[in-house]
Design goal:
With 178 residues, this protein is an alpha+beta fold. The protein is 39% helix and 24% strand. Strands 1, 2, 3, 4 and 5 form a 5-stranded antiparallel sheet that branches.
């Protein structure tokens, strides 16, 4: 039995590596060739589930020129309010950034209208951060804060003043805090 396992171990590892190399190359290559598109369609669920997906907005000819972060304003039943900030990479250690990198990608896409189905879950998650306290959350507002990077005539970039936009308001139900 052991020899059977040893005999198949190397081919299985090689197959695993070959699959991932081909899948990652097809996923990341900025081409629209049919074979690459077929591979992307086949591996998309797996890449999304494992977090291996990558977008090209950082490397494209027009990368995102915006600094942004998310926070939530929480209004309590007694009328007071507080803020909760989603994890911010620039405020973390290198180890923390590595562990929480998915938050950055999550925060980049969450305010987009096409992901509005996620907004109630995000608001409930924020409300649970305040569970067990002396005040009960009543309303959670998700807020996008951003500063665009404007290109100046000399080719350098400067940050524009920070702006804010509340993109979702959620009334917290008692069962949301369970």
């Amino acid at each position: 039995m052991k020899s059977l396992f040893l005999r198949w171990r190397v081919p299985a590892i090689n197959l695993f590596l070959i699959f991932h190399v081909v899948a990652i190359v097809c996923w990341c290559a900025p081409v629209k060739a049919l074979p690459a598109e077929i591979v992307r369609a086949l591996v998309r669920p797996y890449f999304r589930w494992t977090g291996l997906f990558q977008t090209w907005d950082m490397f494209s000819p027009l990368p995102i020129r915006r600094n942004s972060y998310l926070e939530a304003m929480v209004v309590f039943t007694d009328g007071t309010s507080g803020f909760w900030t989603f994890p911010r990479m620039e405020r973390m250690s290198y180890g923390g950034r590595y562990a929480k990198e998915r938050y950055r990608k999550f925060e980049e896409v969450l305010p987009q209208d096409k992901y509005s189905d996620l907004w109630p879950d995000a608001a409930r998650r924020v409300a649970r951060e305040f569970r067990g306290g002396s005040k009960r959350p009543e309303i959670v507002m998700l807020i996008l804060n951003w500063s665009d990077l404007a290109e100046e005539s000399d080719g350098n970039f400067s940050a524009t003043p920070w702006q804010s936009r509340t993109f979702y308001r959620y009334r917290v139900a008692a069962e949301d805090l369970e």
